[in-house]
Amino acid sequence: MKVLILGGNGMLGPWVVKAMKTRHEILLTDINSPPKSYKGEFMKLSVDDVEGVVNAAKGMDIIVNLSVLRPHRRIAFEVNTLGNYSMMIAARENNISKVINTGPHFQLVGPQYEEWDFNLNPDMPPQPGTRLYALSKSLGQEVCRVFTEDNNIHVITLLYYNMKHHWDLSGPEQENIDYHLDMNVPYSTTWPDCGEAVRCAVETPIEKLNSRCETFFILPELPHKKFNSSKTFVVLGWKPMYKLESLWTKSNRKPENNNTEAF
Amino acid sequence: MKILVTSAKSNISKKIIMDLKKNHDVISTDVSGQNNHNFVQCQLDELRDTDLLLKDVDIIINIGYDGQSGSDKILIDYYTRCIYNLLWSASENGVSRVINISTLKLFETCYENLAITENWSTHPISSDVNILCAYLCEMVHKEFARDKKIKVTNIRIGFGDSNSTSFLSDGDLLKYLELIINYKQQIKKTPYQVPPQYWETIHIQSKVPNQRFITKKFDSIFDQFRKNKNKE
Question: What is the mean pLDDT of the segment spanning A155-164?
Answer without folding.
Answer: 94
